[in-house]
Structure formats: structure tokens, C-alpha cells
Design brief:
Elements lengths: L2 E7 H10 L1 E2 L3 H6 L2 E2 L6 H8 L6 E7 L6 E5 L5 E5 L3 E2 L5 E5 L1 E2 L2 E2 L8
Antiparallel strand pairs: 1-4, 2-7, 3-6, 4-8, 5-6, 9-10
Length: 113
């Protein structure tokens, strides 16, 4: 089992830390689950859903730390990880800033993404 990833605004993660759990972004609430990405999907997720947005963080969660994790078909039939419920902030393996340079998100080298 590996990591799955969530891209979100830094203030959303700060709010989650204060409350102890991440309850989802606006799109997550609309769809009824927390959208996550596998390592091979996260760059496209950033480009497609967060284009030009600054002040983002990338949070890595080990799959085994997530209750209610399901892999479900989405873009082009690819399976995406979704969590039904909340995610404890203690489930995170690491959190990294996701800066913009020339309108493109820069993924920190140490993430291996």
C-alpha cells in the first residue's frame, strides 16, 4: 500500500488541524466524498482542478490510515481514491506547500511525484 494525496487550500488544512479532522472541501461536500489522487494522478488533478491557484498544500496519506477509502472509476475509467467520511489530521504522513511558478504547480522533489 502506498500514499494517496489531497490538494487543498492551506487555510482549509489549517482549519482541519484546529478541529482535528478534515471534513472535505466544497467539491467534496457537493459530491458526498473526499476526492483524493494516486501518485500518477495528482499532477493532472492540480492542472485540471487547481490551475493558477496559489496557497495550496499537498497532503500525503498512507492508504492504511484512511477509514472508508474506496477506489472508484472516474476520469477515463481510471480508479481514484475517495474517502466517505472524515479524515483525521493525524492520518497524514506529510504536508508540503505546492507553490506556483509561471502558472504551474511545483511538486517538491522529495515527494517523488
Amino acid at each position: 500500500m502506498g500514499n494517496v494525496f489531497k490538494i487543498l487550500r492551506a487555510d482549509e488544512w489549517a482549519n482541519a488541524i484546529r478541529g482535528g479532522t478534515f471534513k472535505g472541501s466544497a467539491i467534496d461536500h457537493k459530491d458526498g466524498f473526499i476526492h483524493l489522487s494516486a501518485a500518477h494522478q495528482v499532477r493532472e488533478t492540480a492542472a485540471r482542478h487547481f490551475a493558477g491557484q496559489g496557497d495550496l498544500v499537498l497532503v500525503a496519506f498512507p492508504e492504511e490510515n484512511l477509514n472508508g477509502l474506496r477506489w472508484e472509476a472516474s476520469r477515463g475509467g481510471d480508479l481514484f481514491p475517495h474517502v466517505y467520511g472524515e479524515i483525521s489530521v493525524t492520518a497524514a504522513r506529510w504536508i508540503k506547500r505546492l507553490p506556483l511558478a509561471g502558472g504551474v504547480h511545483l511538486f517538491p522533489e522529495e515527494t517523488g511525484i
